[in-house]
Amino acid sequence: MFFVLQLVETMDFVPTKFFKKLESTDDLWEVRVQLGNNIFRFLGFFDGYELIILNHAFTKKAQKTPSNEIKIAEQRKKDYFSRR
Predict the structure, then answer these.
(1) Which pLDDT does position 16 carry in this prediction?
(2) Can you tell me whether residue 38 is helix, strand or coil?
(3) Cβ atoms within 10 Å, residue 73
(4) What top-level branch of life does the organism fall under (predicted)?
(5) Any residues with CB less than 8 A from the CB of 75 and at least 6 apart, and which?
(6) How far apart are CA 48 and CA 65, in angstroms?
(7) pLDDT of 8-57, one tens digit each?
(8) Which of 7, 23, 27, 59 falls between 20 and 30 A from 72, CA-CA?
(9) Average confidence (pLDDT) over 55-65
């Protein structure tokens, strides 16, 4: 897990296998981490150019990211920016 987060932090270009923008969202990004047979997704967003806020995580079992997981991350993003 720390390997993937370090990639996101230090590389100018991170392979989409590990980090990609989610289509049809309010600018949410997905960090993908595999530990053994489990695949975890961390959803988040940028605050400025250098700060990534990872605000939701779940175990992904299907190819498509579940809409309820996206809604949770989008609501938390709204909450974050409303408190700044």
Answers:
(1) 73
(2) strand
(3) 27
(4) Bacteria
(5) none
(6) 25
(7) 666 666 667 778 999 999 899 998 888 888 888 999 999 998 888 899 99
(8) 7
(9) 88
* pLDDT beyond 70 at 5: no
Q: What angle do CA 10, 11, 17 make, to 5 degrees?
A: 120
Query: Is 75 in contact with 82 (CB distance < 8 Å)?
Result: no
The pLDDT of residue 2? 61
Residue with tokens 């974050």: 80
The pLDDT of residue 1 is above 60: no
**In 3-state terms, what secondary structure has residue 19?**
strand
Closest CA to 41 of 69, 16, 13: 69
Angle (CA) 4-12-60 rounded to 5° is 30
Place of tokens 């997704």: 41
Distances (CA, A) of 17 to 7, 39, 66, 71: 11, 12, 18, 22
DSSP H stretches of helix in 1-84: 2-10, 67-82
